[in-house]
Amino acid sequence: MEALSLNNVKLVRARAEDAGHDKNYREVFDISVARAVAEMRILVELCLPLVRIGGLLVAAKGANPEEEMHAAKRPAELLGASILSMEKVSSYSPYGQRTAVLCHKKRRTPNKFPRKAGIPQKQPLH
Question: What is the fold of 16-108?
Fold first, then answer.
């Protein structure tokens, strides 16, 4: 961050399942950014507990995430957010076009989320 002269930026290296229950990280960040590491209904459970009300989750997805977005609509609402938009992003990667999915946090995430490590992947919210 110093090399980029970025102020007021905090990088956190922690499991989202743990950070989401830590009072120092829960619902304090303006933006949570997730790479394309999991299905969207898993990402909303892992990332939304970190985002403050009024903040955004920005998730990197493939070229056609519509079906995944449809499946994540209810879990996002349960966790206090709505899927705001899908923005196509040009990419020079060998995987071609990407999509950034934006979720807007409207209310607090229930305290029972995120669930313990491994559970969101094995039993995604519906």
Answer: Rossmann fold (3.40.50)
